[in-house]
Design goal:
Layout (H helix, E strand, L loop, with lengths): L5 E7 L6 H8 L5 E6 L6 H6 L5 E3 L8 H9 L5 E5 L3 E3 L1 H12 L1 E6 L2 E6 H4 L8 E4 L1 E5 L2 E2 L10 E6 L3 E2 L10 E2 L3 E3 L4 E4 L4 H22 L8 H16 L6 H25 L10 H24 L8 H9 L3
Parallel strand pairs: 1-2, 1-4, 2-3, 8-14, 9-15
Antiparallel strand pairs: 4-11, 5-15, 6-7, 8-11, 9-10, 12-13
Helix pairs in contact: 6-8, 7-8, 7-9
Length: about 325
Amino acid sequence: MDQPLLSVVISTHNSETVLGDCLKSVKTLSPEIIIVDNESTDDTGKIAQKFTPKILSHHNNPLALNQAKNYGFDHASGVWILSLDPDERLSKKLAQEIKSVLASYLPRRQAGKLKVYPVAKLYGAKSSPAAYQMPRQNIIFGKWIKHGLWYPDEQIRLFQKGQARFPAQHNHEKLEVAGAIGSLTHHLIHYNYTSVTQYLDKINHMYSDNEAQNLVAQGKKVAWYDAIRLPLTDFLNNFFAREGYKDGLHGLVLSLMQAFYTFVVFAKVWEKQQFAPYNHPRFLEQVSIEFKTKLKEYTYWYHQKIGIAPKVTSIKSTLKKLLSRF
């Protein structure tokens, strides 16, 4: 088979319910689809065989998911790589946009290998993208979530081979790209969490363990007040600053669940600190001050969003009240 212009790489683990639709959305884009299967025990392999003969086996490591993706990249023969998760699929418009991007590169053969030259560069442009990012449409609990951290959720997924790679340090990292990054306009569709149980299972066994581990490896520590500050800050950021409230009950629940995730990460870092104790004769008052501070932030954001100026208290007066409690 001649070297393809594009290889599609999909890393899977027990993905039988979603993989078929993912593969259908890319089957016309490339003759080379690579499945990296991470020790699936369901029918993922059988479904993959209907679309591609190139199925690679890889050890399943929930705390280092991106190692398998890099492994797939290494085995791709295309000049470009499209990296997808099995619960994602290309919209028809995005598939067409990717075809248009690839068509703007002129393929030429050198020493038996396919090389590509961007049309724009041939006509005097200083540089052309080594990778492209695209907005991701997250479908969570049956609804497209259009606010909070879930949109536009730009993802780098299309890149020239050898120009991008995952550091493979934690699960929420981005591809590192050696070169310019362009932007596509159409959506990558992500059928994200479909149940509360799935959400809780993933944050417990995949994401929070991994994030806590990396924070400790970076020398980060938590203090008692982080149990309050971190999750409440996350909630205010998603629900107010990033306008999660515009998604209604879905937005409220997801903002609270994201705050809970942050609390779980705090608790797991604290666990790695041997559950370091903290107590103080006025601990209850300290806790009260933390909640009152966040209540003020809540009030500020609430008034910002409904268009009413909040009552302003001077910084000097606020500090005086706080210090008088100790």
